[in-house]
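Task 17 of the worksheet. Students: predict the tertiary structure of the chain below and write it out as structure tokens. Keep your answer in the requested format; marks are given for formatting as well as content.
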Amino acid sequence: MVVSVDASKRASSIEYAIRDVVVPAIELEKQGHEIIRLNIGDPLAYKGLQTPKHMIDAYKDALDSQVNGYGPSYGISPLRNAIATSESRKGWACSEDDVYVTHGVTEALQILFAAFLEPGDSILAPGPHYPPYMAYPQMYGAKTIEYKLDSENRWRIDFDDIRSKMDESVRLLVLINPNNPTGNVPLPSELDSLIEIVRDFPRCTLISDEIYDGLDFSGNFVSLASRSKDVPVITLNGVSKVYFAPGWRIGYMAWHDPRGALNGVRDGVERLLRSRLCASTPAQHGFLAGLVEDHGWLSSHRELIKKRLDYSLSRIESIEGLECQPPGGSFYLFVKIADPALASDDKKFVLDILHEKHVLLVHGSGFSPEMGKGHFRMVCLPEVDLLSKAFDRIEAFLRGD
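Model answer:
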């Protein structure tokens, strides 16, 4: 007799909308259908956005030189130093000892939540937001509470909503800047307001996810840590988006703790980092080359992304039934479904387009059941010809063709 072994409630409750929608897409591809994938923010899946050669060469050189054994648990020293220099250029004093290298930002989040959170604690995260901010805290008996972004005003932060939800249970207040999925880039004055709110709650620490910082098209981007003189800020970033190497899985957290308030929790973070050994050593050398060598290539990548974003916005404006707030940064559009009947079940809307027109999008409720509903997220990384084909299919779906 075979006894079925169930997954834990912890694992069964995890949802990751960006990849969950791939499952039915794969089945359609097995049937021979061509699927236009606009679901995942992987620049390398599209033409013209390759990882810079000098970064790949550094990665390969590390492999060829057998520099691929275990490394220090907190990251190799040259990379930590280069990250500290890069962060210091953003206006705050960052040292090598303030930097910890991780397996992407997602591992940084898991470690931070494990070190900060106890049962009954909570975090505040923007709604809508990147799904792990909702999925991971519950693993530690905590919960995520969303604060509102204004969907009618370029997804600006609703500070009154944050104030109404702050209490002593809130251990972490999250900012995603530029935001995924909406593309909002807060003004410096808005960053100051966040710091002011947290100053009254000494058990709370700010997390600033700045993985898209080099893809700010608004001119408003400022690192949150540079605005704080006393309130702790942990900055998250990495190689995946701005350095176009998502599969390398190298991220980091940089700690700005002017008064040493986080010494205890930092000890917990370091224990967790040591217990999982280290991030990929050769990939760290590749990221190091990206930080310290030529950055001129980034301009052409940015221009290409901006061209594709602008084209996508122009097509959305021309399609009856779709609306979109222009993003300030990143390479996503968070599109409003104007027809209430279709918007009432945005996941069905996305799956219907997938099955009928073979375009893969992500339902907005996957980024927030309440504040993302009635929308879908799409990436604007494909070349214009492919985007045009995708929009033709979406428009035909909305017309009922």
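Marker's comment: The chain has a mean pLDDT of 93. Residues 196 and 231 are 9 Å apart (CA to CA).
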